Amino acid sequence: MAFDGAWKVDRNDNYEKFMETMGVNVMKRKLGAHDNLKITIQQDGNKFIVKESSNFRTIDIEFTLGVSFEYSLADGTELTGSWNLEGNKLVGTFTRKDNGKALKAYREIIGDELVQTYIYEGVEAKRFFKKC
């Protein structure tokens, strides 16, 4: 599967502005922009296991495509939602538990990179990962 493997963040585009829009305080935004995030993805059919490891936490997330689950962002923001596969792109549709607002997330392979795109309140950010 294309997403399988270990990926390490290489660079960000508009990530601090995205975190600001999400309500993350300035100190956490500065730390979050340099979190050294590593993502390990294992796919077995419609089931995914994603291990996120950063300077701040390590968490294992298990989900099945199209099935709603709960997730907490590194800053503690709680979400509920699901991932779906649309073509070669993982599309996440999530709702914040605190304010009911929508967060969209996309994961796709572009060239030799995993690109994660986040959209919240009209602000788009991207994180680019290289395979480890």
UniProtKB/TrEMBL annotation:
Domain (Cytosolic fatty-acid binding proteins) ranges: 5-22
Principal subcellular localisation of the protein: cytoplasm
CDD domains registered for this protein in UniProt: FABP2 (cd19445)
PROSITE patterns in the cross-refs: FABP
A GO cellular component annotation in the UniProt record: cytoplasm
Alphabetical list of Gene3D superfamilies matching this protein: 2.40.128.20
Compartment list: Cytoplasm
GO molecular function: fatty acid binding
Keywords, sorted A to Z: Acetylation, Cytoplasm, Lipid-binding, Transport
Family membership: Belongs to the calycin superfamily. Fatty-acid binding protein (FABP) family.
Name of the molecule in the record: Fatty acid-binding protein, intestinal
Organism of provenance: Cairina moschata (Muscovy duck)
Upper taxonomic lineage: Eukaryota, Metazoa, Chordata, Craniata, Vertebrata
